[in-house]
């Protein structure tokens, strides 16, 4: 294909369309997937084989409404029974290909319609293509009997569409009673949009109404962009002869088909018109597929943003609640009071800081139990807060997805566990708090190395100073200090002064900042892990973020190369 850029571009287009992936349930997704599948079939069945062998015989597909007489017409054109006719509907279940024996090499291989297995025996399998070589049909053209376009059997309708997409020439059969039916005209409208070579055969026309009906049908064709369409009329007949029409009724059509089949230039003109129209139609319609892909990408981004927002808000609330004094309630506050003493220590706070420092060694001696209990209370309160917000984030993210049709469809296919915190959340939250407390104690220990010679640091101990720093973090780092923290009252002031007595003012603020950054980082990491459950669901959809750009680029190559390809030029 190196010397045929159009073939290479179309092969790439075929591969891209075959791999179209639009898993989200959206209005545009089904239409895009169906269209892509249809175009892959047309490229395989018709466009690529026709480009490879532009001088091959024409393939004319006879299509039309149920009971229009397609099999009868084909039998009449072949001069023998090659396609069974019946009063049962649908009659044509298995597509039958009729061709001259001289063209056997063209049609008995899988050059066209490669997905249908060939057979020359009678069969009811619609996945087979029944071959019927005859000596009476003119060489240069094969005729394919397709299922009804309005069949009550969905598979028949789909096959009819596929076969017509594979045709160089459409022979569309209707009757004087049904020529205005909507379904056939939908197909004819597609033919007009694709500039396909079409022949209309109007069957069973009462002789008295022949002029009137044909004139009205011609008007309808003109209004729908098919003014140049060849129109043949077959009068109504009381009785068929051996299941076939009288020769004089179809002689004009037979002559036209024979002349076309025997004229290579005319055949090429017909095939070029149909093939160019098909390629141009793809160039016009594939942007709808590209738009559908883009909608999938946009929707994934929206769903991801929903879950991200839910967990981001949870992270912000935890960070606020661990900085504004919210945690200094209940058991934490009670244990803190037990630790520092509600009487003697608070009276000491009212005195000068120097006096406070002098009393520290005696005051804190012998109270490690209270420090441990306070640390446990902090651990429990922080653990509950994290798990509560993580659960709420899962609920909010799930609710946001549930409110979106695509998100709702996704949730229907996953475990209901996604609506709450992960099974490992409880353990992870506990480990987070434990590790943070250990980091705080390590930070205090490292900062207080040069203070350890002082009696006040030794008296407080690492645990004592550590819990005081935790209390200070929960009240100070939110921007409130001292008496401004209403929820904790003088508790925050006391923690601050205890720490300043040990480390000094500037060191205390630095310690608090480092401890809070450490906590926030751990919380963000845990919530990110929780959120990843939602991201993983979206990732498993395997929507290629580059698919839109790739398909757009390929389509541009098809358009540019088809414009200059000599095989698509009109033949004079």
Class from helix and strand fractions = alpha/beta
The global form is rod-shaped
Terminal Cα separation, in Å? 27 Å
Radius of gyration: 41 Å
Summarize the structure.
The chain is α/β, with parallel strands linked by helices and 572 residues long. It has 19 helices and eight strands.
What does the model show?
The protein is an alpha/beta fold and 572 residues long. Helix 9 runs antiparallel to helix 18. It has an 8-stranded mixed sheet with strand order 3-4-2-5-1-6-7-8, sandwiched between helices. The chain is rod-shaped. Helix content is 61%, strand content 9%. It contains 19 helices and 8 strands. Strand 7, helix 7 and strand 8 form a beta-alpha-beta unit. The chain starts with a helix and ends in an 8-residue tail after the last helix.
Key structural traits:
9% strand; 572 residues; alpha/beta
SSE diagram, text form:
Elements: H1 5-18, H2 27-52, E1 58-64, H3 70-78, E2 96-100, H4 104-107, E3 117-119, E4 128-134, E5 141-145, H5 154-165, E6 169-175, H6 182-194, E7 197-205, H7 210-223, E8 230-235, H8 247-262, H9 264-321, H10 330-340, H11 344-349, H12 353-364, H13 368-402, H14 405-412, H15 425-447, H16 455-476, H17 491-503, H18 505-539, H19 547-564
Parallel strand pairs: 1-5, 1-6, 2-4, 3-4, 6-7, 7-8
Antiparallel strand pairs: 2-5
Helix pairs in contact: 1-2, 1-19, 2-9, 9-13, 9-18, 9-19, 10-13, 12-16, 12-17, 13-14, 13-15, 13-16, 13-18, 15-16, 15-18, 16-17, 16-18, 17-18
């Amino acid at each position: 294909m190196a010397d045929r850029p159009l073939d290479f571009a179309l092969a790439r287009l075929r591969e891209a369309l075959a791999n179209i992936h639009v898993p989200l349930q959206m209005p545009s997704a089904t239409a895009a997937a169906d269209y892509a599948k249809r175009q892959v079939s047309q490229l395989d069945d018709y466009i690529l084989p026709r480009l490879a062998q532009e001088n091959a015989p024409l393939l004319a597909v006879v299509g039309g409404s149920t009971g229009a007489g397609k099999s009868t017409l084909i039998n009449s054109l072949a001069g023998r029974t090659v396609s069974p006719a019946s009063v049962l509907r649908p009659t044509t279940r298995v597509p039958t290909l009729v061709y001259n024996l001289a063209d056997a090499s063209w049609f008995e291989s899988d050059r066209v319609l490669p997905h249908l297995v060939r057979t020359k025996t009678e069969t009811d399998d619609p996945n087979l293509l029944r071959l019927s070589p005859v000596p009476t049909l003119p060489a240069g053209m094969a005729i394919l009997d397709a299922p009804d376009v309005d069949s009550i059997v969905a598979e028949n309708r789909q096959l009819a569409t596929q076969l017509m997409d594979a045709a160089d020439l459409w022979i569309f059969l209707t009757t004087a009673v049904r020529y205005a039916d909507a379904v056939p005209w939908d197909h004819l409208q597609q033919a007009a949009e694709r500039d396909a070579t079409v022949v209309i055969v109007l069957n069973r026309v009462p002789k008295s109404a022949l002029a009137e009906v044909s004139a009205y049908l011609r008007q309808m064709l003109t209004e729908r962009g098919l003014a140049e369409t060849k129109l043949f009329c077959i009068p109504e007949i009381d009785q068929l002869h051996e299941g076939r029409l009288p020769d004089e009724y179809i002689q004009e059509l037979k002559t036209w088909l024979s002349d076309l089949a025997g004229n290579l230039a005319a055949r090429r003109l017909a095939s070029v018109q149909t093939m160019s129209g098909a390629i141009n139609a793809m160039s016009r319609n594939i942007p709808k597929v590209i738009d559908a892909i883009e909608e999938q990408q946009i929707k994934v981004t929206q769903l991801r943003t929903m879950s991200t927002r839910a967990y981001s808000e949870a992270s912000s609330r935890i960070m606020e609640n661990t900085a504004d004094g919210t945690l200094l309630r209940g058991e934490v506050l009670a244990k803190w009071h037990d630790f520092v003493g509600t009487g003697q220590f608070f009276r000491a706070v009212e005195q000068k800081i120097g006096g406070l420092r002098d009393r520290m060694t005696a005051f804190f001696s012998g109270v490690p139990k209270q420090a441990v209990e306070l640390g446990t209370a902090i651990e429990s309160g922080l653990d509950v807060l994290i798990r509560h917000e993580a659960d709420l984030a899962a609920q909010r993210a799930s609710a946001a997805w549930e409110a979106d049709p695509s998100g709702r469809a996704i949730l229907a296919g996953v475990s209901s566990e996604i609506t709450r915190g992960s099974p490992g959340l409880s353990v992870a939250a506990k480990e987070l708090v434990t590790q943070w407390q250990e980091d705080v104690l390590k930070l205090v220990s490292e900062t207080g190395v040069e203070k350890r010679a002082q009696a006040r640091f030794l008296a407080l101990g690492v645990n004592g100073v550590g819990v005081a720093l935790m209390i200070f973090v929960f009240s100070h780092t939110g921007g409130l200090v001292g008496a401004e923290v209403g929820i904790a009252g003088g508790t925050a002031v006391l923690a601050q002064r205890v720490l300043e007595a040990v480390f000094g003012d500037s060191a205390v603020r630095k310690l608090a900042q480092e401890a809070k950054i450490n906590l926030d980082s751990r919380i963000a990491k845990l919530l990110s892990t929780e959120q990843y459950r939602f991201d993983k669901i979206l990732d498993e959809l395997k929507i290629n973020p580059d698919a839109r750009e790739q398909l757009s680029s390929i389509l541009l190559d098809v358009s540019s190369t088809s414009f200059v390809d000599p095989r698509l030029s009109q033949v004079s």
